[in-house]
Structures are given as structure tokens and as C-alpha cells.
Amino acid sequence: MPKLTETYAKKLPQAATGTQKHWDNEVKGLVLFVGKRAKTWYFQKDVGGQTRRILIGRYPTISASAARQTALGSG
């Protein structure tokens, strides 16, 4: 799992099919979903035995550092 940086997010190609998940190695729960048309930041955590996914926003509107700060505040 790499650290999700601006450079890393920018270089990721759009997925040909489905959605690819790229997890951050510094902030537990921060994930970048890469689909055919968009790259979207989420914060994911387990609450009461169920997985909860919180939308942070779309890349590049939300930068990697802003997504990281939001995820840290959501944890």
C-alpha cells in the first residue's frame, strides 16, 4: 500500500472496468476509488461490526492532503 499523494493520484489511469481501490499506508481507512469516469476519496471504518464508508469528495477537486486531513478528523 503506497502513501496516497497528489503525484500518485494524478498518475493513476482510469479503470477500464469496475472500480479499483487504492489504500493509504499512513492514514488507516483513507481510500481512493478509481472508476471509468472518476477518482473519489472515501474514509472507511468499521462501526459495530459493519463497514461504514464516508464520502470525502472527488479528485482533483479534493487534493490528497485535504482528503488525508478530512480522514484524520473522521477517525
UniProtKB/TrEMBL annotation:
Residues 4-71 form the Integrase DNA-binding domain. It comes from the Bacteria. InterPro entries: Integrase_DNA-bd_sf, Integrase_DNA_bind_dom. It holds the Pfam family Arm-DNA-bind_3. This is Integrase.
